[in-house]
Specification:
5 helices, Dna Ligase, domain 1, 2 domains, flat, 6 strands, three-stranded antiparallel beta sheet, 130 residues, alpha+beta, Arc Repressor Mutant, subunit A
């Protein structure tokens, strides 16, 4: 499947590729404005939604409800999220138990799988000690 991207979509994808990390829509908008882009915040949100629905980027919602976006890659990460302070620690998912069978299972269900997330919620060491 070939997807044709608009100029604004290409600009956002290029920035996400350069950053190689999760970023909020607001932070992405600020960085685009720093690069002299005239794109508005509402347009950034709209484009992120479109790219997410197309399976190009993934969205992760933090414990405080903020959405973070990044390009979908073959390697993925899981997170330990502290529900007290909001700290999120990345766990590399080298041997993800879900990843090994998820694509085969989704194909058997006639479901096109773009990515998956695995989030753990609890208290970090600092919050446990307080």
């Amino acid at each position: 499947m070939f997807i044709r991207f608009t100029k604004n979509q290409q600009e956002i994808l290029h920035l996400l590729e350069q950053l190689n990390a999760e970023i909020s829509a607001q932070e992405l908008h600020i960085k685009l404005r720093e690069n002299t882009s005239k794109i508005g915040l509402a347009t950034v949100y709209r484009i992120l939604k479109i790219l997410h629905l197309q399976g190009v980027i993934q969205e992760r919602v933090t414990t405080n409800g903020e959405s973070l976006y990044q390009l979908i890659k073959h390697s993925h990460y899981h997170h330990l999220n502290c529900i007290s302070c909001g700290k999120s620690t990345i766990l590399e998912a080298k041997n993800c138990p879900i990843d090994n069978n998820s694509f085969q299972w989704s194909m058997a269900q006639k479901f096109k799988l773009y990515y998956h997330t695995l989030e753990f919620f609890g208290l970090c060491e600092n919050c446990q000690n307080e």
